[in-house]
Amino acid sequence: MTIQLITSIVLMLISIFIIIISLMMSPDSNGFSGALVGSGDLELFKSNKERGVKKFMKWAMFFMGIITMSLALVINFVAK
């Protein structure tokens, strides 16, 4: 197997995990409708932070996003 095939498979699996985790996360804001009308629910310095599973899912999404971008760059450079 080539390195390009292996990284493509890993990239596909991580993308599926990102979709699953994003579907499991509960929305905390008004979403798209809040963005259109200018909702004021953005609390950057709130006193109650995420805990437990919610915090784990947030950081898992963050790191899987970084891994996805890195693998996409590796595939791009290996293909050349």
TrEMBL record:
GO cellular component, as recorded? plasma membrane
- Localization (cell): Cell membrane; Membrane
Which GO BP annotation is one of this protein's? protein secretion
Keywords for this protein: Cell membrane, Membrane, Protein transport, Translocation, Transmembrane, Transmembrane helix, Transport
UniProt topology in membrane: Multi-pass membrane protein
Q: Does the keyword Isomerase apply?
A: no
Give a Pfam family name.
Answer: SecG
Q: What does the record give under GO molecular function? A: protein-transporting ATPase activity
Which family is this protein grouped under?
Belongs to the SecG family.
- The signal sequence is none
**InterPro entries given for it?**
SecG
Q: Which residues cross the membrane?
A: 6-25, 59-79
* Protein name, UniProt field: Protein-export membrane protein SecG
Its predominant location is membrane
Could you tell me which NCBIfam families the record lists for this protein?
secG
Its function, per the record, reads: Involved in protein export. Participates in an early event of protein translocation.
